[in-house]
Amino acid sequence: MADGAVLVTGATGFIGRLLVPRLLEEGRTVRVLQRRPGTVDGPGGETVHGDITDRESLVRAAAGVSTIFNLAGVVSHLESERAHMQAINVGGVENVLAAARSAGVGRVVHVS
Q1: Is the pTM of this model over 0.85?
Q2: What burial letters (b/e) apply to 90-107, b meaning 16+ CB within 10 Å?
């Protein structure tokens, strides 16, 4: 990907569906991480298969990008969802940061 390319996690969520088209309008090369390709129409850009809980898939997805926009997250007030929220909202962020370091990404924008 060219310099200035970005990776967006959570691209099919509320903010991602607004951000990705805006980045594309600005002429940015956009790569979106999608857990289950083909199950949800993406907001545009190049779609890559991966999961925020899978560090290696993030490293592959982050290769060649200059910025990662981490929009992936889970919101719940249910105690039964606590472990899932921890895996995504804490472990996922750790994975994004580790992948950014490994891939030499210069900037991570985390939305919480």
Answers
A1: yes
A2: eebbebbbebbeebebee
Cα–chain-centroid distance for residue 33?
5
36, 40, 33: which is closest to 59 by C-alpha? Answer: 33
1: exposed, middle or buried (Cβ count in 10 Å: 0-12, 13-18, 19+): middle
Contact 7, 66 (CB under 8 A): no
Using alpha carbons, select from 87, 78, 46 the residue that is nearest to residue 96: 87
Tens of pLDDT along 53-81? 999 999 999 999 999 999 999 999 999 99
